Amino acid sequence: MMATHHVMGVTGAYPMLVTLWLLPLAGAVLCWAFGPQLRGLAGWLASGAIAASFVLTVASWASGTQSAGGALGAHQYLFSWMPGFDFGLLLDPLSLLWTLIITGVGFLIHFYSIGYMHGDRAFARFFAYMNFFVFAMLTLVLSDNFAGLLVGWGLVGLASYFLIGFWFERRTAVAAARKAFVINVAGDVGIMFAIFLIVANVHSTAFGDAFAASGTLSSGLLFAICVALFIGAAAKSAQIPLHTWLPDAMEGPTPVSALIHAATMVTAGVYLIARCAPLWSANSDAQLLVGTIGGLTALVGAILGCVQWDIKRILAYSTMSQIGYMIMGVGVGAYEGGVAHFFTHAFFKAQLFLGAGIIIHNLANEQDVRRMGGLIKRMPFAFVAILTGVLSICGTPGFSGFFSKDRVIYGALQHGHPWLYAVGILTAGITAYYMFRLLFITFWGEYRGSVDPSDLGIRHPELSGVVDPDAGAGHAKEPADRAHHAEHAPAWIMSVPVGILIVPTVLIGWLMFGGDTSPWNGFFASSFPSAALATPAISELATSGVVLLLVIGGFGIAWWRYGTREAAANAVERLRNESVRMPAILTHLFYIDAAIDLICVRTSQLLGQFFGRLVDPLVVDGTVREAAFGARWLGVLVQSLETGLVRAYALVLALGAACFIAYYALAVAR
Amino acid sequence: MLVVAIILLPIVAGALLFLLPRDDRAVSRAAGTIVAAATFVGLLFQPAEFSFRWLSRPFVAAFHFGATPVSFWIALLLALCTACAIAASNVPRLRDFTALMLFLEGTMLGLFLSRDLLAFALFWDLMLIPVFFGLIGWGAHPATAWRYFIYNFAGGLTLLLATAAFGVLQGSTDVIGTTTAPLAGAWAPWIFAGFAFAFLVKTPVWPLHTWMPLTYSDTPSPMVSVVAAVQSKAGLYGFIAIALAFVPEYVHEYAALLVLLGAISLIYGAVVALVQNDAKRIVAYSSLSHLGLIVIAIASQNSLALQGAVVYIVAHGLFSAALFLTLGFVEQREDTRSLVRLGGLGAANPRLAGALCIGALAALGLPGLAGFVGELIILAGVYQAGYTWAVIVALIAIVLAAAYALRLYQGIMNGPPVEDLPVRRDLTWREGLALAPLLAALVVLGVQPHPVLEASTASAPPTSTVSR
Amino acid sequence: MSAGLTIPFTNADWAALVPIGIVAVTALVVLLVDLAARTYAPRYLSIAIGAAGAVAAGVVAAPQFGHDYSAFFGGFVTGGFTVVFEEVVLIALIGSLILYGSIGKAERMAGTTALMLWSTCGAMLMAGSANLMTIFLGLELLSLGLYCLCGLDERKTARESALKYLILSSTASGFLLYGMGLLFGASGSVMLAALTNPALANNPLFWTGAGMFLIGIAFKLALVPFHMWAPDVYEGAPLPVTAYMSVATKAATLAVFARFMYAALPAGSSDRLLLPVWIVAGLSMIFGNVGMLAQRDLKRLLAYSGTAQVGYILTALAGGTSQGLRYAIYYLTAYTFMNLGAFAVAAAMSGPGEEGSRIANYQRLGRRRPLLAAAMTFFMLAMAGLPPTAGFLGKILILSASVGAGYVWLGALLIVGTAISLYAYAKVVRAMYEREDRHATHDLQPFVPLAWASVVLCFVVVIAMTFYPLTPSNVLPLVK
Amino acid sequence: MTLFWVLAAILIASAIWTITANKAVYSVVALLLNFAALAVTYLTLSAEFMAVIQIIVYSGAILMLFVFVIALLSSGVAPLSVGPNRLPKAVAPAIFIVLVAFGFLAYAVLGATAVVAPAAGANLGTVGTAGVFGSVADFGKALFTVHLLPFEITALILMVAVIGVVLLAGDQAPYVATRRHAERVEREMREAILREGR
Amino acid sequence: MAVAISNYVGLSAVMFFIGVAGVLLRRNPLVMLMSIELMFNSANLLFIAFARAWVANAGQIFAFLIITVAAAEAAIGLAIVVATFRDEKNVDVDQVRLLKG
After folding, report:
1. With the C-alpha atoms ordered A181, A183, A186, A190, is the resulting torsion angle positive or negative?
2. How far is the C-alpha of B131 from the C-alpha of B224, rounded, in Å?
3. Which is the most buried residue in D76, D107, E2, E9, by most CB within 10 A?
4. What is the torsional sign of CA B9, B15, B16, B22?
5. Residue A668 shares a structural domain with residue A547
6. Same domain for A604 and A546?
């Protein structure tokens, strides 16, 4: 064990920190235990817990956090399993950022859910899970060591599992939940392996110890640690090739998608890499790997986003793509940029999802954009919400996404990755295309809800991304008993959070204005290792211009295909043609799902059948049974010698006697 | 003297149960639960050692009882599991069954608390008998009883041979928990082999495991919850308390083989559990997998791994007991264990679903529950000891564990309700209370396993982190 | 004529024979009382007298423990070794008499009792004899009594068993006798002590003589391949006789073998000389246990069991250590009680005209007679060597002896054999506790308290021996 | 020397005849011849008392028993019959085993007899002379002194034989358990006699 | 003494194994008993021969006792044979096989 511990933050007693961490847990336990008694109050209780957490976060940062000896943040020691496995809470700028999003955006989504989930049979259970998720996520980001991080890591996976499979009577939801969980466990074991590497070399799981020792570790080891950590990050943040669970995760209620699968949990990978910045900064191989995968994910997510019909799946692929940006940013070393994109994305993506949730809610759970159309008149508020979100995600100048995304793209160039830079720019254009596609199909033209699905090309539900063919034609998925309660919810409950979110969606990016001198960079000054950067040939402004051009291009194509008056008039036919003529490689999502299924799932099932049905009973047990059978057979043989004939007995006796005599005649030493 | 009382109490109480009327159910169940709980409380008092000379020739042997730090936890686990299992049991001829359960507890307490190798061997064989009768009287197929009995008895015999040889060579078997000089000489490897065979059969480890799925699926749930949870730990405890203490060189010498067997069990059990349709068999094969991990931990002879092993021994006991009890409730309600037939019970039985869920999550090593602690620390230690490949195999198995544990849980509780399954009431208070201590202990140990982690450092002599 | 003939014996010589004399005279008393009072006497009178005589003999013999004396020029040696085996034989006698009193025919009570007593005299003589003549005569006295006892039943199978026993046993006696002849030829003396002459170590006469002598011994011990008679004879003979035979013959013959092995071999020759015996013991442990697997009759099963158990005892003796002898005696004692206990339960299962030895008849005994079933289970598990019985401790001791003496391969065979045996023993147990019965079961007759007492006694002893394992430590010096 | 070979020939021939004779009676006759020859052989070995006993006990008593039993079982004049042979293939193995065993025994023993040497100063004399080795007096003296115990045991053996045979044979005797039973049997018998008489 | 003891030993061995062969080959229980008597007699011959060789009358006495035992054994054996075959058609040990595995 190391004698000295490197603690990040200032160690002390921070009761507020502990309280804000445990409040959601208390809310979860209360909602779970007294759900039947609380009924509708559960939503208010849960939201209240999160709100209190948010307030405490702000308060504890403002009042309790100290800065001493180069360490900024609050560190609260909790308990120890054994030397090297000490647990504590750490609230430093990085974790503060996440905590604010988790509790802040989390509160809004909780509040929204009171309306969205109104009347659901398991209303209280939903909020128990949601609160539990917040607790788990707080555990993840507040932990001061890898083991605690892993605990949170696993628990958010669990919460995600529960919420994806919230409507567990639907086979698709159950399958999606399991898929998400198993892939996330695959990520967990990556982090576990990293922990083994760290423990074996540093004899501690504390971040401080690990980072302090990062200089002494060999580069190969460092690379191994980073790769192992990144497996966890990739699974959690839906990076290629572990992304396949994210679109399926849209089986969960929409607020869940907004909170977990857009704003917070899926960005845990970004957090992890940002948290382990000292490790990445010390190993350029890891940076290249992670940056490349992030860029690739951004591109692939965007491409796949262009071919989806389910409104939540489009948003899911966009999430994947945007996280790809973030990972690319933190991967290549542009930590502030990646983190900034997380920050803005949390707002605008929550905004988008909540807006989509209003649509889904109002259309009795219709999620297929082909069966929407013309909603601009029916739901102007939703249009505004989604429009601001789309503008932000596309990087319209002035909107928050513009600042953060450009920082990521330019960061790639700054850190010497021109190819990633190019990919980032390209992706931005594609993003504009598919987001405006979503907008136009949904809100332009005439309402198509009464058109026969087959006329819209909805013939093969699996082509629209529905996991399970049993589930029917891809609509009316949510249980009926909840649907007809829906109208009883007051509309303002769902509108208010969306309305509040519009503000940061539009404005929050200005925090990052000003490059290195921005308040954003100032806040994170002590959090990330600084690297001496060469000045690239292309300036940041030029980059923004190029990006803007491509975004306009993407918008133009979307307009040309879906937005023009002609397109709106022929929407039904055009959508059908697009559905039917879509290339197989795109409808099958580059066959990544199929490949994973074949390589991992089918193979292990096949092995299981082989061992379980053949090897175990026939070979392993067969040997034992043959031995037992042999003994019994010998028993029958011995018994069959007992013929009852005295002469036969005498013969055996004589045989034995002859053997004896032979031995004694021969063995005597003469 | 208290320690003897703790061992004898269940046995005597079990015999006294026969004084009750044959068809009595409530009283015998209550009495059994109270007796088992009393042993639990008694153990908490950390009873002093007790010794009574048994043999002077051919070697010194004594009825020497007393908890070592490791066995203390296993004994506590045993008492807890037995109390819960008896409280949960609802089988025909309950009086006789409860008596058998108490015999089982008494014999196993004797095993774990004995400080003498010969007494250990004695209880080793003795603890097979109640299970044998349980299988004969309550199991589905009598053949299983044979399989169980003879397979394990064969192990018991090699243990006996090894014990005799040990006694002859060392002059005394009154050694568990002491720091006797390790065995040396030509016989030592054979003695090690005798011990190892017995322990590996009992654990079990591939390819000696084939008695186990049958036994675990056929034995009535309350009994199998104790057998799977605690009896299977006898072998592992033997490795820790006997093999590591007295033949450490050979554990080291054959470590690669042991690790290999453990790793095969680990992955094999996980893969096979993935495709089983009998719910209890899934748990059975998962046990093969989980215990393989502990075998690896022990074979690695790394102090960190050993600490983790003790936690995992307790954790596996808790969650496998909970799982088997819950599956017993399911089977009792729906008259089937087949995942093909079951489904959608969660809607009508939230408490049952919750219990099964926690059990399954602990089995798949969810962080925050006790199983995770064990896995994490074991593998950290195993990695330190240099068996990187085994660590990777174990990590793959953890992913597979997630798959089969969820398949188990979802297959029973999730999905649309199955039409032809009878609708029965959710967990009763009695059943819920029987499960609660196990689940609570899983959470508590998952958060703070410190006292259990300390156990092996307090007792295990080989603290040398052998690095290859 | 009688001038030169003085009887050269002192009181000590005669005193050595007192236990045997008591038993022999008791037999006469039994017959005479029966003759005089058959019509009026209670049913159990013969048994009572016989058992009393046996107890008296046991009590009288006990003080001879520790008093070595070679009476009648070595014809009979008293001392711990002799006494232990005598007591074992007497216990077998008493147990069997009780069983006979429980289920035997009243009209044969006296004759059977007398013959058993006289057979016991033979067995006791074998236990004490250090002289080929007395060995042979003791053996024949034992055997002749047993031939008759086997046939004393109206069942045809009883007479068949007597015939088979007679023919095969006499043949084996022929081998034994021929071997004795060769031994006499080698040493010029009938004294066992004369065989220790080192000059004999390379004498073919001695070797072949020992070989043929051991053939006879192996036959009496029913070792594979000389065991073929045992299942048939055990099955056919009346149950109490089987119980008696299974213990007394083995104990007495083991005494002879042990004395031969420990006190009658030239130094250094025993390993090679006795190798076939150890091989045969190993075979017995395997095939004796394997043979049990397919049996459907308890007595046949116990016959094979006995074969295997003797193999275990010989495993203890292998190597010729003093510990080994001690543990062999321990196991023999344990076996005596386990075996008698099992037979006592079987006796309880006997119905009118039916000996309760078909395993099928034990179906559901666990429900019909739970205590009886529990007792049977206990004895079966004890024979299998499960704790907490003397069988378990006995196996440990035997293993330690064989390991200590370097005969690990025998220990390993013991392990293998025991593993196999468990299946067979547990088969009986399983039959008793199975839930549904597949065979019609016969009515059980009430079981007399005395027999119950013997069951309980066996139970208690087998348990007690586990926890207080008294192995007579000073036996060995008395062998010579 | 010649006498020995003659005797040996007779002994072997009669032994073979004993085991090969078709009828049990012939076997008895052959055995009688064998025993007689054996008695003579004993004489050549200074065992005069044993020679006498051999004739008296063996030939005179034991073989007579055999004859009686043959007569008893033959139910008059019909010979003892046998059923089907259930071990027809055992002859060759049996003979082979016996020959092998004999071969090994002979190989071991015949090469070894030279070891045996008469004790020095042995009191050997003409057979039939008093006081020499093997004479009745010499024999009796040893029997009643050194070997008294075995001799006494034979008494027990004979007792067992007597009682055992009585019990075996008396199997079919009417059994009288109690006095009341005895009286009933007696009454029934009397009535039966009376009925017969009428 | 003209004839070597080994001759007598050989002779007795021949007789002994003829007796053994009789037991193995014959089915008539009476002949089997006679074969056993042959075996006993061969042993007697051995004892007496060795008694002569060693000039030790223990051998003769042993033989004497063997004769006694043989007599008792013959008596009991014959009684058993009679009891067994009294009601049988054939006097043949092959026909007596109620007892078998």
Report:
1. negative
2. 9
3. E9
4. positive
5. no
6. no
Question: What local confidence, expressed as pLDDT, does residue A474 receive?
Answer: 37
Nearest to C160 among E9, E69, E99 (CB): E99
Which tokens sit at A85? 């496995």
What does the alpha-carbon distance between residue C395 and residue C406 come to, in Å, rounded to a whole number? 16
pTM: 0.86
Does A334 have pLDDT greater than 90?
no
Residue A483 lies in a domain: no
Which helix (DSSP H) or strand (DSSP E) does residue A503 occupy? Answer: helix A491-507
Length of chain A, in residues: 670
At E65, which CATH number? 1.10.287.3510
- Asked if A454 contacts A369 with a C-beta cutoff of 8 angstroms, the reply is no
Q: Residue E93 domain-assigned?
A: no
User: E82 lies in a domain?
Assistant: yes
Please tell me whether residue A78 adopts helix, strand or coil conformation.
Answer: strand
Domain contains A324: yes
Which residues are CB-contacts of B268 (< 8 A; sequence separation ≥ 6)?
A611, B206, B288, B289, B292
Per the structure block, which two tokens stand in for C126?
């074998």
Specify which residues B62 forms β-bridges with: B53
Same-domain pairing of A537 and A579: yes
- The residue range of the domain holding E14 is 5-88
* Number of domains present in the structure of chain E: 1
Residue A235 maps to a domain = yes
Q: CA–CA separation, B268 vs D55, rounded Å? A: 82
Q: Residues 62 to 91 of B: which have CB under 8 A from any A CB?
A: none
C-alpha C463/C-alpha C341 separation (Å) is: 12
Residue C386 forms contact with B (CB below 8 Å)? yes
Is residue A316 domain-shared with residue A407, that is, in the same domain? yes
Quote the CA–CA distance of C422 and A418 in Å, as a whole number. Answer: 76
- Which of D87, D88, D70 lies closest to D79 in space, CA to CA? D70
Please count the structural domains in chain A: 4
ipTM for this model = 0.88
Rounded CA separation D115/D113 (Å): 5
Q: Are strands A74-82 and A10-11 parallel, antiparallel or unpaired?
A: parallel
Q: Which of B78, B88, B85, B14 is nearest to B42 (CA)?
A: B78
B195 and chain C in contact, CB less than 8 A: no
Digit-coded pLDDT (tens) for D69-107: 888 887 544 556 677 778 788 889 999 999 999 999 998
Q: Are residues A32 and A118 in the same domain?
A: yes
Q: Is residue A627 domain-shared with residue A647, that is, in the same domain?
A: no
For the record, the structure tokens of C239 come out as 């149950």
Per-domain residue ranges of chain D = 1-76, 126-168
Is A157 contained in some domain? no
Could you tell me if A336 and A451 lie in one domain? yes
**C-beta of residue B311 within 8 angstroms of C-beta of residue B449:** yes
CATH code, residues D1-76: 1.20.120.1200
Is position E50 within any domain? Answer: yes
Cα separation, B206 vs B215, whole angstroms: 15
Residue D177: both structure tokens together: 């358990």
What end-to-end distance do the CA atoms of chain E give, in Å?
54
Would you say residue E95 lies in a domain? Answer: no
> A-contacting residues of E 65-94, CB under 8 Å?
93-94
Q: Distance (Å, rounded) from C-alpha B85 to C-alpha B209?
A: 24
Dump pLDDT digits (tens) for A175-220.
899 999 999 999 999 999 999 999 988 888 888 888 888 888 888 8
Report chain A residues whose CB lies below 8 A from the CB of E24: 647, 650-651, 654
Query: What residues of chain C lie within 8 A of the CB of D182, using their CB?
Result: 39
Count CB atoms within 10 A of the CB of residue A35: 19
Range of the domain at A648: 640-670
Query: Do A166 and A252 touch, CB atoms closer than 8 A?
Result: yes
- How far is Cα B29 from Cα B82, in angstroms, rounded to an integer? 11
CA A13 to chain centre: 33
Q: Name, in order, each residue with C-beta under 8 angstroms of B55's C-beta and a sequence gap of 6 or more.
A: B61, B62, B118, C469
Whether B182 shows a pLDDT value over 60: the answer reads yes
